[in-house]
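Continuing the series of single-chain predictions for the mutant panel. This is the parent chain; the variants come on the following pages.
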Amino acid sequence: MTDPNQGAADQDAAAQGAQEAKDQKQFEQVAQELKQTISGVPDLAPLANSLMVDNTPEGIRIQIMDQDKVDMFSPGSANLFPRSKDLLAQVAKVIRKMPNKISITGHTDPSNAVDPSGYTNWELSSDRALATRRALLEGGMDDRQINKVVGVSDREPVDKGQIRSPRNRRVSIVLLRADNTKTEDFDRLPRFLEKASATQPTDAATGESLEPAPKP
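Parent structure:
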């Protein structure tokens, strides 16, 4: 007699294996397309070693890291160098063709500098993530593809042995797997916009009317 639980487990294992194979194929496709796209722009050659692509549980991660004397941003600011903008435009060409939502995370290295205004690495990493978002949009990516933009200061170094390594100053762009993306609000957006065009305003979070209830 066949064990139904074993049958279900086998189906789950097969489905998981198929998904892993699909994810690996997509990872290889993204990595190859990025390599080809960037190699086709001679001016970006100095940044080729700044780009790292890996496969993570969250999704395909594209990291653009600083190198020694090759930075993405002006020191202490969220101003992208022109070459960095060009690189992000090439990245946008690849990821805008993918169905995945993306997350953007800004990272810094530790700093002992004290800014009288109270501006810290938390603000700097967030501003750099937002600057990256703008550069991707300028590269032709749809803003609706962006799921999350955050800054994490120096809390997630890629080179833990050398916390002041320039590689820790980076931006991570992750093509999120479907189970890491909340799509309910995105899918409901057209309905909100349709209601917003009607005579009564609606709450963007709930879709409910903002008109005062009629008096009894």
